[in-house]
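User: Can you help me understand a structure? I only have the sequence.
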Amino acid sequence: MKITFLGSGGGRFSAISQRRMTGGFRIDNLGGKNYHVDPGPGALIRTYQFGFDPRNLSGIFVSHAHTDHYNDAEILIESMTRGMTKYNGTVFGSRSVLKGFEKWGPCISSYHQSKSDTVVLEPGVVKEVDNIKVKGTEIEHGDPAGIGFQIDYNGFKVSYTSDTGYFEGLGEAHKGADILIASVLRPGNKSIPGHMCSRNFMDLIEEVQPKVAVMTHLGLKMISNNPVVEAKKISKQTGVKTIAAFDGLSFNVNYNNPKKFRLISLKDVESSMHSTSHALFNSGRRNSYQTSFKNKEFDELSILKKS
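Assistant: Let's start by predicting it. Here is the structure, written out as tokens:
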């Protein structure tokens, strides 16, 4: 299994400024399946930028009805279903994302839900799909129907808190996690309602005792405060290896020894090539040029003729 962060920023101001990317993260080769989690603004572009193919997705997870978590979900669904021509994959989401709840959502249209299986995740309820078990986990956040989740593959568990404030019972919901991925918006003790700070994450880690902890969805104050330093403090205090995610972070997971891994910083690929061969890209470019020329779509050509 490989986990790759196509963005480590979070919160509306990180999303607007793009000081950190907001494409969510991918879990690849989980029992031969690939999943995209919380595809915020830019998720499709970042997928290509870091050398992945959105067409090989088996499922998409959307935790709640905030733009920095769902923005690119529909175009990824179109990729997964070959432009909505093939029934394929599973869309996992909160009730607000898939059905709508009060003023929240739905965030994915009925049309885009029509070509995939859909699974509404509820806190404490376990659903089994693609040989994985997915348990919804409670959050305390602006979207009252939002969820986190824990994925169980043959006893190996990956937990994701999504956006949530720290509350009694949060640790219990993520117990048994081998890898704990959490949205940690702010550094130190500077928490705000509906979000965790470093101190909260430290407390959560001590309760859950994962093998590895990853902090992502970093807000502007966290980014300015140096998240790597925060992660080192948490590691020292808890004794659990803690990583501050960065854009393009990737690591392979050893099921038998999750603590043993090597962080990889993915280099941007040439996005125009879309992870295919150079020959195919050149062919497509030539065809586009010829078609445009044939249909007189070049403004420069028109100007030259007039002069």
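Now, to help you interpret it: The longest strand covers residues 22-30. The radius of gyration is 21 Å. Let me know which part you'd like to focus on.
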